[in-house]
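Researcher: Can you fold this with iron/sulfur cluster in place?
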Amino acid sequence: MYHKAHEVIKETKEKNCRISDVVLQNESKLTERSAEEIREKVREVLRVMQDAAQSGIDKETKSVSGLIGGNAVKTDQFRKTKQTVCGDVVNRAIARALSSSEVNASMGRIAAMPTAGAAGIVPAAVITAAETINADENAMIDALLTASGVGQLIKKNATISGAEGGCQAECGAGAAMAAAAIVELYGGTPEMAFDAAAIAIKSILGLVCDPVAGLVEVPCSKRNATGVVNAMACADMALAGITSVIPFDEVVDAMYKIGKSLPAALRETSLGGLATTPTGETIRCRLMKGDKDTLF
Ligand code: SF4
C-alpha cells in the first residue's frame, strides 16, 4: 500500500516495474480480485471513455441547458479543413476532451475519472497518445492504471473535489493523471511520469471553481480542452528530461493548502468568479426563467 509518490517510485525501482504494475498489484490486494479481473474492469471503463470521446465529434451534442454543445464537432472540422496552430495531434485531443464534456453535460454516459466535470482530460490524452504511436488496447489499460494511481495519491493527500479545492483539484488532477499516463505510454520512467504530473498541477495551481449558473458546463468544458493540452505539454517536457523542481508530493500538498485557503465563493458555489460576471448572472437568470432561446 502506498501513500506518496516517492513510495511508488521506490517500489518500481525495487521490482523493476512500471507505475501501472504497482497500481495493479495494489488494487488486486485491496479488492481480492485477480489482475486479469481488474484489467477487464478497466477495459470496460476504456470503452465508455472511447464512446464519450467520439460521440460528440460524430454528432453535435447539446447540453441539457443548451448553454454548451457542438464545440467538439467544430474543432474536428477545423483540424480537418484548415491550417491549425497547434497541429493535428493536439486538435484531435482537444476535440475528444470537448466531446466527453459535452456528453457529460447532455447527461450522457462518461467515465468520471477523476470527476464528471474533468472527465474529458484523461480519455482524450490516453486515446490520442495511443493513436499517435499505434499503441494497443492493453497499453491503454496500463496507461489508465497509471492515471488512476496518480489520482489515488492526489485524493489521499489532497482532494479531487472542486467544492473542496477549486478547479485546480479537478482539472488539475485530471491533467496530472493524464500527463503521467502519457509518459508511461511513451516509455518514460516513473520519475518522469511524476515530474509530468507535478508540472501539470503546478501549471494550474490556484484555479478556482466558478461554474456559471451552477452547471458543469461553463467554463468546465473548455477547461477540459486546455487540461489535455496542459497534460500533453507536461508529458513532452518530462520525456525531454525536464524535471519538476518541486516534487510531486510537495506540489499536491501545496495544491491542498491553496484549495483550503480559497474562499467558499470560489469553490463550486457559483457565488464568485465567472459565475457572477454580468454575462454569468444574465445566463443564470435566463435559465432560471426557463428562457433557453435567448441565451446568446
Ligand atoms: S469549474 Fe468547478 S465544476 Fe467546472 S470542472 Fe472546474 S471544478 Fe469542476
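Model: Folded with iron/sulfur cluster in place. The chain has a mean pLDDT of 97.
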